[in-house]
């Protein structure tokens, strides 16, 4: 009865595989869509920051506006995700998914109004 030892790399890949399998099987499509948008916003913020550090900061207010818009939109989307998650129904009893999306849309409009005004 020989047992094979798994190295740290195979243990890590097994853990990531089981995490991905559980996520894809148990997460509703609505939350997966919001997660994809959150990933896009995170990637966009990283690219903006890297561009600012590696290439140029000119014009600086444009970088601040774009980065603040990305971070603000990420916060609003994360709030939307937590409100429409079926596991959080006890915490958001009075908030329907439609109301959560309306709050998200109104918050996005206000955020982008301020970002546009900051650009000058």
Describe the structure.
Pfam families: DAD. It is found in: Endoplasmic reticulum membrane. This is Dolichyl-diphosphooligosaccharide--protein glycosyltransferase subunit OST2. Keywords: Endoplasmic reticulum, Membrane, Transmembrane, Transmembrane helix. The protein has 120 residues and is mainly α. The protein is built from 4 helices and no strands. The longest helix is centred in the middle third of the chain and has 26 residues. The model has no long low-confidence stretch (mean pLDDT 89).
Q: Into which percentage range does the β-strand content fall? A: under 5%
C-alpha-based Rg, rounded: 20 Å
Number of helices: 4
Low-confidence stretches: none
> What is the structural class?
mainly alpha
The geometry reads as flat
Determine the N-to-C terminus distance.
73 Å
Order of helices and strands: HHHH
**Total E-strand runs:** 0
Helical residues, percent:
over 70%
What's the rounded overall pLDDT mean?
89
- How would you sum up the major sheet? none
Short structural description:
This protein is mainly α and 120 residues long.
Present the secondary structure layout:
Layout: H1 8-26, H2 29-54, H3 60-84, H4 97-119
Helix pairs in contact: 2-3, 3-4
Key traits:
120 residues, mainly alpha, 4 helices
